[in-house]
From TrEMBL:
Catalytic activity: GTP + H2O = GDP + phosphate + H(+)
Organism classification: Bacteria, Pseudomonadati, Pseudomonadota, Alphaproteobacteria, Caulobacterales
Keyword Membrane: yes
Entry protein name: Signal recognition particle receptor FtsY
This protein's encoding gene: ftsY
Binding site for GTP: 114-121, 196-200, 260-263
Organism: Phenylobacterium soli
């Protein structure tokens, strides 16, 4: 993704408002008056983090760190939020990765994978729009040959992004389409190829095999391809995202994670355990359905937004 767009922090904050509202209310209740931090309030804090789906391990680590700094001291709501944001930001700092297809080899081939409805097609569309707006020559490949409406949905995004579009009738072989498209992209000097795939339940081996086949055939054209395999995870499924990461990571291989729909849940904290459990970094986050609602993952900004604080101080 390009540099953060104007107003992106506001979008992030708006997107994460359900999570931050849940956390904020709890913090306000727990720390209504400035008073020394005691064990009872620490426990409430930890409970709140678990409720926001940060997971027991992160919640415990963050609480411990917080206790080490503040136990017995007078703390108010604002200080709690600042300290919490810092602790969450530190938890995530090493788990971030850049998604930058225009500085890689050409054509840069990106494969989108994930379960049904996680946001693959939408994320692909948003990325395509960003890339074409920066002048890149982009090809979109409708590798979801499984679901009838999938091609039309993607075509809408391709038109919106003014990207070229490759598709075949429903039921066609996705791997053959991917092969021919990549071959064409190489011959015609494309900068980026974005390959959509059919949503799959992680327990349906047939569809997993199809993904492996797509990867196998494009490697014949470029042994380093796909240069990026983005696993798209829906934040609203909560801790189920952890299982998905595990299965796709092991069976297919993942180079980066996109977490979508952070705007659709009060449990956006789930990004934290996913980031920690995953071998691959979080690269992008989705905070809405619109074309500008995809952002590079910025751990500090995420942490501040999640607890309801304003922009990262310069
Ligand atoms: N609120 C919100 N909705 C999103 C976000 N990303 C995607 N969606 C919506 O989630 C729904 C599913 O998104 P798709 O992009 O079709 O998901 P998919 O993974 O391609 O789904 P399949 O092709 O069925 O596997 C759509 O209604 C999207 O608009 C997001 O960040 N926030
Ligand atoms: Mg789709």
């Amino acid at each position: 993704m390009s540099e953060p767009k104007k107003g992106w922090f506001q979008r992030l904050t708006a997107g994460l408002s359900r999570t931050s509202k849940a956390m904020g209310e709890q913090i306000t209740q727990t720390f209504v008056q400035k008073a020394p931090l005691d064990q009872a309030r620490l426990e409430e804090l930890e409970e709140m983090l678990i409720e926001a789906d940060l997971g027991p391990h992160s919640a415990a680590r963050i609480t411990e760190r917080f206790a080490a700094e503040k136990f017995g001291k007078d703390v108010d709501e604002a200080e709690i939020k600042e300290a919490l944001a810092e602790a969450i930001g530190d938890e995530l700092a090493a788990r971030v990765g850049a998604f930058d297809p225009l500085s890689g080899p050409r054509p840069y081939i990106v494969l989108f994978i994930g379960v049904n409805g996680s946001g693959k097609t939408t994320t692909l569309g948003k990325i395509a729009a960003d890339l074409t707006s920066r002048g890149a020559k982009v090809m979109i490949v409708a590798g979801d040959t499984f679901r009838a409406a999938a091609v039309e949905q993607l075509k809408v995004w391709a038109d919106r992004a003014k990207a070229d579009f490759e598709s075949r009738p429903t039921g066609s072989d996705a791997a053959a389409l991917a092969f021919d498209s990549v071959e064409k992209a190489k011959a015609q000097g494309y900068d980026v190829v974005l390959i959509d795939t059919a949503g799959r339940l992680q327990n349906k081996q047939g569809l997993m095999d199809e993904l492996l086949k797509i990867i196998r055939v494009i490697k014949r054209l470029d042994p380093d391809a796909p240069h990026e395999t983005l696993l798209v995870l829906d934040a609203t499924v909560g801790r189920n995202a952890l299982a998905q990461e595990n299965i796709f990571g092991n069976q297919i291989g993942v180079s980066g994670i996109v977490m979508t729909k952070l705007d659709g849940t009060a449990r956006g904290g789930v990004l934290v355990p996913v980031a920690q459990a995953s071998d691959s970094p979080i690269k992008l986050i989705g905070v809405g359905e619109g074309i500008d609602d995809l952002q590079p993952f910025d751990p500090r900004a995420f942490a501040r937004s999640v607890v309801g604080l304003s922009e990262v101080p310069q």
